[in-house]
Amino acid sequence: MGTKGIEIVGMDVSELIKLLNKAFADEWLAYYQYWLGAKVVKGPMKESVIAELTEHANDELRHADMVANRIIQLGGEPILNPKEWYDFTNCGYDAPTDPVVYEILKQNIKGEQCAITVYQSILEITHGKDPVTYNMALQILEDEVEHEEDLQSLLEDIEIMMKK
Ligand code: FE
Ligand code: FE
Ligand code: MG
Q: Does the residue 126 lie in any domain?
């Protein structure tokens, strides 16, 4: 933990760490939802869907890494026990109980829309107060916006194909 780096944060650092831990729980649950979705998914254009889900799983894991590093920089501790993910999460977890492509895509689109809301809110809260967290949240938000669009285009393509 760097003392000057923490001193320049113009907001309640423990509140910020809590918000980041909530996002951290979201990222792990999103990672697992994508990773498992890629294993069980069935239906049209399965190979393209698996490729996209796998890519997104890797991105979510990278986001978890970024958020954990920032929590540690701020002198906090990332959630140590996965049991606590459910207590902290904003976006929850959607089990792929119906593994057909459209259902998996819809579940993950919902998750991305929640993630966009979460990072938009972190951006608003840290704006002008913590440029380092702000910059991190912006990088992650850019990925989440891309993820939502990727999944919605895939779903659109599958729907067009199914109508023929
Ligand atoms: Fe993410
Ligand atoms: Fe995402
Ligand atoms: Mg993608």
A: yes
